[in-house]
Specification:
plastid, Methylamine Dehydrogenase, Chain H, 5-stranded antiparallel beta sheet, mainly beta, single chain, 401 residues, WD40/YVTN_repeat-like_dom_sf, TAT_signal, Photosystem II stability/assembly factor, photosystem ii, 34% strand, 3 helices
């Protein structure tokens, strides 16, 4: 993806992070190699639906603009951040940002109520776009995740929908997904190579394609439900039957994942090549809110009340607390620009900056004036940065010369 340069995160009040590449373990994308359950979910039913959709779903979408709200000038918040005026209703939930690999200033912002906005100036201004196929079934889709490799891009959403472009978003094609897909797609990662992508659901299913979504291979051979039922007596506090869903999912550049359980009482990790997710105990009695990866490939995790911890990538080591005065507001996301510079955001306009790799944090006091919870950060290799917040709040990092 041409978007973010730290870990990919799905924190929906969980983008990718570093440039997204294929998993370290090579996965061949052939339906014949899928386990029976995965093949049933993504092979024959998907092809049947594709034939029904036909050429009518080869879209000429992104060019048609919705009626726009009155535009206003962006408002400077501090020396580093400005508040971007967006042509959307305030009740739209912003969910992800991605930029194409061919133009660092050309990107898309998406969210609930089928929201899709496009920019050509690095996110200073945005214009609404529509995707006709997203309206064919009468659903009000929530676009969860977007990712680009060059001009090839992918969007996933809920109810289950997969959109694909090969021309930088000038047109989008609706790709078929089976009704038996386990869970709703919450994260998509454009991998290196034409037609290559990885899709993750909120029930821990991970599928990979190398031929433009015609066939998929299951990367995880056991469902999260099956894993929890198998390890119920292994000492994982809070794990119980039928809790196989995630509230947040994050992916690093190597294709490894960390995810927070829907109740926030334990977390799970997965490394490319493993057959199932591995559950872990949380470091305190406080509810987990989000998790992701640091530049040195450790895991960061945040708990209710504003606590931040670090642990090694296995999730099994000792948890080290970070120095952050959160004032009791929950920290909802952390992302890094490079090995030293990073930002954290959270409730009631909480915005923090670190210049020592996350060991200590300083509050951006100007953000305290925002009447919004800030829940996701995204940074691009070109130096662009964004913060997503409720009530349609978008902060843009002002790139310093």
């Amino acid at each position: 993806m041409a978007a973010v340069c730290a870990a990919s995160s799905v924190s929906r009040p969980a983008v990718a992070s570093r440039p997204r590449t294929a998993s370290a373990a090579a996965i061949r994308c052939s339906a014949a190699e899928q386990p029976a359950a995965a093949a049933a979910a993504l092979a024959a039913p998907a092809l049947g639906r594709r034939s029904l959709l036909g050429a009518g779903l080869a879209l000429g979408a992104a060019a048609a603009a919705q009626p726009t709200l009155p535009a206003q000038a962006n408002r400077p918040l501090s020396a580093e951040w400005e508040v971007v005026d967006l042509p959307i209703d305030k009740d739209v939930l912003l969910l992800d940002v991605a930029f194409t690999g061919t133009d660092p200033n050309h990107g898309f912002l998406l969210g609930s109520r089928q929201t899709l906005l496009e920019t050509f100036d690095g996110g200073k201004t945005w214009e609404p776009r529509t995707v006709d196929a997203a309206r064919d079934e009468g659903f009000n889709f929530r676009f969860n995740s977007i990712s680009f490799n060059g001009d090839e891009g992918w969007i996933v959403g809920k109810p289950a929908i997969l959109l694909h472009t090969t021309d930088g978003g000038k047109s989008w094609e609706r790709m078929p997904l089976s009704a038996k897909l386990p869970g709703a797609p919450v994260l998509v990662t454009a991998l290196d190579g034409p037609g290559c992508a990885e899709m993750t659901t909120d029930q821990g299913a991970i599928y990979v394609t190398s031929n433009g979504a015609m066939n998929w291979t299951a990367a995880v051979q056991e469902t999260v439900d099956a894993t929890l039922n198998r390890v119920i007596s292994s000492g994982i506090s809070g794990a119980s039957y039928y809790e196989g869903s995630f509230s947040n999912v994050s992916r690093n550049a190597d294709g490894d994942y960390v995810a927070v359980s829907s109740r926030g009482n334990f977390f799970m990790t997965w490394t490319a090549g493993q057959t199932y997710w591995r559950p872990h105990n949380r470091p305190s009695t406080r509810r987990l809110q989000n998790m992701g990866y640091t530049p040195d490939n450790k895991i960061w995790l945040t708990c209710k009340g504003g606590d931040v911890y670090y642990v090694d990538a296995s999730g099994e080591g000792a948890f080290a607390p970070a120095k952050i005065n959160s004032r009791g507001f929950g920290i909802l996301d952390i992302k890094f620009v490079d090995d030293k510079l990073g930002y954290a955001c959270g409730g009631s306009g909480s915005l923090f900056k670190t210049e020592d790799g996350g060991q200590s944090w300083k509050r951006e006091r100007a953000a305290d004036t925002l009447a919004a919870n800030l829940y996701e950060l995204l940074f691009t290799p070109a130096g662009l940065g964004f913060v997503l917040g409720n009530d349609g709040v978008l902060l843009r990092r002002i790139v310093q010369a």
